[in-house]
Amino acid sequence: MPTWDETREHLRAKYKLMKDEPTWVGLGFGFKAKDRDVTQRVHIEKHTIADMPAVMIVADVVEATRVPHEAALKRNMTFAIGGIAIHEGRYLVRVALPLANLEWSTLETVLEYTAREAARLRDTVPGN
Question: Which pTM was predicted?
Fold first, then answer.
């Protein structure tokens, strides 16, 4: 089982971190979508699930006032993992992963999925 510190070291080695704090890191996850370059802000933090060590991956989407709540909840049902949340007036896509038996490839896949879903959801908002 990796620790939070080992997870943070892996993220440092694999990605260019924009922020590196003791309990969380921030990065800009880059990818191609519809022939354009996208950089999605992602926050990864130390977390717990039922008293077990975990990480929370959070990707910013858009101001909550720009998407009707019913539409966001309907979209939430299409996610294979994770879900939509509102925090401080913004929609976020968030996924929690227990560290027990977490493999780096799983972390990287879920990180990419979270970033892509957040960007895809933002693209559906009128005016974006």
Answer: 0.91
> Are 80 and 111 in contact, with CB atoms under 8 Å apart?
no
Nearest C-alpha neighbor of 106 from the set 1, 20, 23: 1
List of residues 6+ apart from 120 with CB closer than 8 A: 33
CB 25 within 8 A of CB 16: no
d(CA 56, CA 59): 10
CATH topology of domain 4-123: Yope Regulator; Chain: A, (3.30.1460)
Nearest to 118 by CA among 20, 43, 8, 47: 43
In the chain (128 residues long), the average pLDDT of successive 10-residue segments reads 95 96 96 88 96 97 91 89 94 96 96 93 79
